[in-house]
Amino acid sequence: MTDTSNLKMLGSQTEQPQNPDEAILETVPYSGTAEAPCVVRFTCPEFTSLCPMTGQPDFAHLVIDYVPGPKLVESKSLKLFLTSFRNHGAFHEDCTRMVGRRIAQATECRWLRIGGYWYPRGGIPIDVFWQTGPMPGDVWIPDQGVPPYRGRG
Amino acid sequence: MTDTSNLKMLGSQTEQPQNPDEAILETVPYSGTAEAPCVVRFTCPEFTSLCPMTGQPDFAHLVIDYVPGPKLVESKSLKLFLTSFRNHGAFHEDCTRMVGRRIAQATECRWLRIGGYWYPRGGIPIDVFWQTGPMPGDVWIPDQGVPPYRGRG
Amino acid sequence: MTDTSNLKMLGSQTEQPQNPDEAILETVPYSGTAEAPCVVRFTCPEFTSLCPMTGQPDFAHLVIDYVPGPKLVESKSLKLFLTSFRNHGAFHEDCTRMVGRRIAQATECRWLRIGGYWYPRGGIPIDVFWQTGPMPGDVWIPDQGVPPYRGRG
Amino acid sequence: MTDTSNLKMLGSQTEQPQNPDEAILETVPYSGTAEAPCVVRFTCPEFTSLCPMTGQPDFAHLVIDYVPGPKLVESKSLKLFLTSFRNHGAFHEDCTRMVGRRIAQATECRWLRIGGYWYPRGGIPIDVFWQTGPMPGDVWIPDQGVPPYRGRG
Amino acid sequence: MTDTSNLKMLGSQTEQPQNPDEAILETVPYSGTAEAPCVVRFTCPEFTSLCPMTGQPDFAHLVIDYVPGPKLVESKSLKLFLTSFRNHGAFHEDCTRMVGRRIAQATECRWLRIGGYWYPRGGIPIDVFWQTGPMPGDVWIPDQGVPPYRGRG
Amino acid sequence: MTDTSNLKMLGSQTEQPQNPDEAILETVPYSGTAEAPCVVRFTCPEFTSLCPMTGQPDFAHLVIDYVPGPKLVESKSLKLFLTSFRNHGAFHEDCTRMVGRRIAQATECRWLRIGGYWYPRGGIPIDVFWQTGPMPGDVWIPDQGVPPYRGRG
Amino acid sequence: MTDTSNLKMLGSQTEQPQNPDEAILETVPYSGTAEAPCVVRFTCPEFTSLCPMTGQPDFAHLVIDYVPGPKLVESKSLKLFLTSFRNHGAFHEDCTRMVGRRIAQATECRWLRIGGYWYPRGGIPIDVFWQTGPMPGDVWIPDQGVPPYRGRG
Amino acid sequence: MTDTSNLKMLGSQTEQPQNPDEAILETVPYSGTAEAPCVVRFTCPEFTSLCPMTGQPDFAHLVIDYVPGPKLVESKSLKLFLTSFRNHGAFHEDCTRMVGRRIAQATECRWLRIGGYWYPRGGIPIDVFWQTGPMPGDVWIPDQGVPPYRGRG
Amino acid sequence: MTDTSNLKMLGSQTEQPQNPDEAILETVPYSGTAEAPCVVRFTCPEFTSLCPMTGQPDFAHLVIDYVPGPKLVESKSLKLFLTSFRNHGAFHEDCTRMVGRRIAQATECRWLRIGGYWYPRGGIPIDVFWQTGPMPGDVWIPDQGVPPYRGRG
Amino acid sequence: MTDTSNLKMLGSQTEQPQNPDEAILETVPYSGTAEAPCVVRFTCPEFTSLCPMTGQPDFAHLVIDYVPGPKLVESKSLKLFLTSFRNHGAFHEDCTRMVGRRIAQATECRWLRIGGYWYPRGGIPIDVFWQTGPMPGDVWIPDQGVPPYRGRG
Ligand SMILES: [Ca+2]
Ligand SMILES: [Ca+2]
Ligand SMILES: [Ca+2]
Ligand SMILES: [Ca+2]
Ligand SMILES: [Ca+2]
Ligand SMILES: [Ca+2]
Ligand SMILES: [Ca+2]
Ligand SMILES: [Ca+2]
Ligand SMILES: [Ca+2]
Ligand SMILES: [Ca+2]
Ligand SMILES: [Ca+2]
Ligand SMILES: [Ca+2]
Ligand SMILES: [Ca+2]
Ligand SMILES: [Ca+2]
Ligand SMILES: [Ca+2]
Ligand SMILES: [Ca+2]
Fold it and tell me: Region (Disordered): which ranges (chains A, B, C, D, E, F, G, H, I, J) (predicted)?
């Protein structure tokens, strides 16, 4: 049974953090450290932040893959963390890497990658692909399979 | 056999007209006027014009359906006509209707409709749907089936 | 049991007719004339004819729907008939209507429609939709559902 | 609660009937006759019969829509009935209509239609669409949505 | 602003009802009765009940469209209602109509339809389509667009 | 040429309105009132507002079709208007209708419909379909074609 | 011929086990151990368990690939085993790995992997990918190809 | 020119073999042994055999890839061989490997793999992937790309 | 600027060669030999030849990838070459390899592969995959991604 | 925070450069050089240039992947650069490589690849795939996933 004794948010009334610095990623101990490693994938189809130059909202579809070490990220705190970027200004490249880096730090995971698939602004969309290091050889990680952007017709 | 005696462009060296007013839509007599009417569909996946406000290029996927009367549009002149919008500035609504109106006038067709599926600029794409009048009751016209625009993910 | 006594081609060694005029559409009596009418759909994804102006090959995907009257078209003779257009020169509009008209005449059917979905030549494909008259009200005819042409990407 | 007292096959050891004439379509009373009518759709993606001319197996994907009257068809007997065509020789048109007619007779239904989407033999597939009469005006029947046949590429 | 004063479940700790009879569908007043009518669609991709004959679990994807009268169904109570079928035994036809009828009664809606797209058992899936009466003429209701069942390959 | 003399925002530095009441939908005269009517479709794949009960963000994909009367909506002001719902709390039904009603009022259009396709919260997504009145008989309006929600797999 | 002498469930009346601990995975000897190894894939599109924190039902689409050693898993007992999770509470990560581990133990297989594609709860779905060790080099294992989760539009 | 002098079936009247042991896989010499190797793929979307336990029909979509050595399999005899499983009882794993092994033996090919994608029985489909040995390094073999099974919705 | 001084066909009146032996593949010097290599892909969705045994037409979708050495193939002569197979009789395996071999010889390319995706004849389509040698390690060659053949439904 | 002090175009009134030589690709310093590398993908679905032989417009869908070194390309200048090919005449192979080479030079990136997916002219489309050197081993670069060209039907 997963040990949830250190969780502060689950089941309690939690406030939405107003920016990523305020947000806290909670974790639970991972019960599977003694057996073959697994991979966990989160998909966030509704991520939004602000353009640092113009203040206009930016939108992305994020897919995160990680190989847990001692801890799993707790999903309610993950959601509040992701929502906290709503009024945060950052370039696509910086924003994508920041989401990945924070989850990697909080979970002390063995490996993590993040794909940021950003909505087009002005016709040329940007995707950002980042990983903490080479993919480990002993796990199975399907590709993320997000279809490429296209125009019309 | 289709009568092609009045065609000026086919097989000859033709210059690209520089704007829609210069372009001439040639026609050939339609051999099927004595039997049940047919519908002809053209698809132009690579239409481009200019934004009248900013001079930036706009792009659209056009689909045109028409019920011929006495004349068919000749396809090489149609192509030169469509290409002539390359440096023409007009709003999406005006541009789409102008393409439809010109073909309807040149062919004296019984009925015509045009769907203009414009590439997004700034995240909100515009589609324009225009027809010369109510769809005739005695013909079969499948829907154009262009999939709706979507974002990412 | 379907009466096949008048069939000349089935099971015998048949020569490929060299053009549509040589081809003969054979028929079998339809056993269902006493009950509610049915619709029969043929799909021919590999139709080819020649351009009457340039002699280059043209290609089309044809879909034919008909409501049988006293006769069904025999499918081997249908195939030989369709293959006989291989070296026949005709415009898309004429060719599509000719296929439909010949089947309608041979079967004395109650109603027929044909969709000719032609491969692009020079970037602007042409579709031709023809029917012998208004769609009968007492039958069920799903749309042909051929996806619209698109470019690349 | 549905009255199942007249069912002979359900829960008992039933033999596969060897042809459609041997097969019996069992029914259960329909509990909804006092309220607004419903539509029931069966999909059979693996129907097979024999060609009456050559003895080769034919394959079809069948979709059946019906508006129950006093009785529902019992699904185990339906399955045995459909499987009983395995060694039955019949043309596509006859076979499709026979499946529809038998279910309509057994259930005394208000209305029925059947779409028979046959696998291609020799490159030109045949679809057969049949209904017992005009579609009733007070029910909701989505189209069957089976995608059209296509070749390669 | 929607009047939520009569809601008992929202924000409180609610127990999962153990069957549909125990479940209560709560409602909120609809603020749009004075203007043109709207249509509301719920999609439930994870409905499950039990087979009344064998006790085996059945699964369905449900889509519900309704035209509100004076009340909207409250979505948390809707979810608990749908989950309450988890250990309820009923035929597909009865189960689908019961879900629709209960929502129609609770909301006193002008019109409702439900599509029940059941997972296959034994290779032949069943869909059930039910509506409370003829579709009203003054609203816009897109088709539900659930793709047809197919086998493999 | 479209008359743009009354536009305040285009080309100038415009502030993002903080809520829908602050936002102003600008218009331009429609040049096509003397000929057959057209339909204009906007797609907004990245609409976001807040849940009025919990303050959590909600997301939707909106598709708007309208038949212009004397005025077209100017697209930059439309975008700012849509973005102004970012911190606005409203139920899905109210929010969708408000977007439609505001555009209809600003353009004095002949007819408008809006489809709001909301992301799932808690597993059961809601779609809202609203129109200002019966669809006019003399225009061509393709269906919006947004695929139905589904779960996983 | 497969040796089925030790099977207890096949053909007999078997009770549904109420939880995974009660369920027994039966096996049959694998007849192919003397030739090149094969891979067997099971797909379970309708797996359901309970959330250990809230008691709400969770749903997943599972895909399992294994390389048999001396034994094959018998498919009826596999199905009863999977259904036994219906009232079992466990986190997604634990539940997915438990299914894989139990099958690996019962079959003494050379290698196994499991993909658990969970339905979204609260907008952020979780996938879990686990394997017993590095993929063997001498077998062919296509990717599972489950499309990535996406939102709407 | 391919040497076809040893073919017995092509062009002659051939009987359908009643089981796989009766069926003979004929071959023709491969003309390309002196140049770089090629890969040949057969797709059989309509394979059917019987369940050895219940006698019920099973269905599969088979895809076979092989690298020819001195001989090519003749396609008419291949088809008769595949059809000969129609009344043959075997487990999915045995049946799939038997098809592959027989073709490999008849052609003395350098390498072969077979994917058997079986239709679901009772909700949990089985796929079987088998190859004669490690994939050769000097050929190009695209993946088979058969989409994964899924349920409804 | 590409050197086109040795081209005979471009801009002149060229006759269609009647078979592959008559056809000449012209080339132009490749300007990129001093930098990192590129890959060029041609797609020919409308290739047709004749069956050498029966004289019936065969159809294929061809995709060709090559890494240029000193020369590029000129595309008009490529098209005439491909069209010249129209009345040429050859087995699928021979025909596919002949197309590849001729282009490789004419261009003296570093590497070439060809995928021949043939339309089904008699229900079992054949694909042929051939390459001149091992794929070079320093180029990027996406897979050809042609979807697998399937039947109906 | 990204250092944007050297940007000349962002926020200022910029003229569209008339050809690629006039266009300047601006850059910003990359803030992530001290951590694991990322990959950035641009998609340009509406690239157009001119055929150097005939002056007719050519169209392509471009996808560019690069691994930043010290600099990121600024996206507004990238867009102006891509648009500057509108009246530039070049072969597909040259044009595609020129886009890639210019971005690689401007950003001094570690690695870059470009896929040019060109619209068909005369029925046989050309794709061009180019990279600056072998793909680095320490980054994650999903394939570009652009579906292959196909004809009709
Ligand atoms: Ca993959
Ligand atoms: Ca396009
Ligand atoms: Ca349609
Ligand atoms: Ca989306
Ligand atoms: Ca339809
Ligand atoms: Ca595109
Ligand atoms: Ca094709
Ligand atoms: Ca629809
Ligand atoms: Ca199939
Ligand atoms: Ca439509
Ligand atoms: Ca599923
Ligand atoms: Ca794959
Ligand atoms: Ca592949
Ligand atoms: Ca589903
Ligand atoms: Ca790929
Ligand atoms: Ca099927």
Answer: 1-22
Q: How confident is the model at residue A56 (pLDDT cuts 50, 70, 90)?
A: confident
The distance of A139 to chain B (nearest Cα, Å) reads 25
Q: Residue H4: is it exposed, middle or buried by C-beta count within 10 angstroms (0-12/13-18/19+)?
A: middle
Q: For A94, phi and psi rounded to 5 degrees?
A: -70, -40
* I48 with C48: Cβ contact below 8 A: yes
In a domain, H3, yes or no: no
Active site residue C127: no
Query: Which member of J3, J58, J65, J109 is catalytic?
Result: J58
Q: How far is the CA of F123 from the centre of ligand 11 (A)?
A: 14
C152 versus D112: the higher-pLDDT residue is: D112
Asked if residue F65 lies in contact with residue F41, where contact means CB atoms within 8 angstroms, the answer is yes
Report the pLDDT averaged over residues A118-126.
Answer: 84
Tens-place pLDDT, residues C20-43: 999 999 999 999 999 999 999 999
- C-beta neighbour count of B93 within 10 angstroms: 23
> Scanning every residue of chain C, which has its alpha carbon at the shortest distance from the alpha carbon of I43?
C152
What CATH code is carried by the domain that includes residue H57?
3.30.1130.10
Predicted local distance difference test score (pLDDT) of residue F1: 42
Which pLDDT tens digit goes with each residue over G22-39? Answer: 999 999 999 998 989 999
Q: Which two tokens stand for residue G15?
A: 């009770």
The three state secondary structure string of B18-62 is CCCCCCCCCEEECCCCCCCCEEEEEEEEEEEEECCCCCCEEEEEE
Query: Is residue J145 a part of any domain in this protein?
Result: no
In a domain, D74, yes or no: yes
Local confidence band at D9 (pLDDT 50, 70, 90 cut-offs): low
More confident residue, B56 or F14: B56
For the cut 80, the answer to whether the pLDDT of residue B7 exceeds it is: no
pLDDT at residue A5 greater than cutoff 80:
no
Task: Please tell me the distance in Å from F120's CA to the nearest CA on chain H.
Answer: 15
Catalytic residues of H, by residue number, are: 51, 58
Q: Can you give the length of chain C in residues?
A: 153
Whether the CB-CB separation of F93 and E72 falls below 8 Å is answered with yes
Q: Which residues in chain H have their CB less than 8 angstroms from residue I147's CB?
A: 145
In sequence order, what are the beta bridge partners of G127?
Answer: A41, G117
Going by C-alpha positions, the residue among A111, A129, A115 that lies closest to residue A37 is: A111
pLDDT band per the 50, 70, 90 thresholds, residue B115: very high
> Range of G81's domain?
27-131
* Contact criterion met (CB < 8 Å) for G76 and H133: no
Candidates D120, D146, D153; nearest CB to I120: D120
Name every chain C residue with its beta carbon within 8 A of the beta carbon of B79. 122-124
Q: Answer yes or no: is G48 within a domain.
A: yes
pLDDT band at residue F6, thresholds of 50, 70 and 90?
low
Nearest CB among E4, E37, E142 relative to F144 is that of E142
**Touch between chain J and chain H: 3 or more Cβ pairs under 8 Å:** no
In terms of Cβ atoms closer than 10 Å to its own Cβ (0-12, 13-18, 19+), residue E6 is exposed
What is the phi/psi pair of residue G140, to 5°? -115, 120
Cβ burial J61-85 (10 Å sphere, 16+ → b, else e): bbbbbbbbeebbbbbbbbbbbbbbb
> What dihedral angle (degrees, nearest 10) is formed by the CA atoms of A64, A65, A69, A72?
50
Task: Pick the residue of J8, J9, J40, J79 with the most A CBs within 10 A to test the interface with A by mutation.
Answer: J40
| For range I42-68, the mean pLDDT | 91
- Least confident among A129-138, D117-126, I106-115: D117-126
The reply to whether B75 sits in an annotated binding site is yes
**Catalytic positions of D, written as ranges:** 51, 58
How many angstroms is it from I144 CA to the middle of ligand 13? 7
How many folded domains does chain A comprise?
1
To the nearest whole angstrom, how far is the Cα of A111 from the nearest Cα of chain G?
A: 14
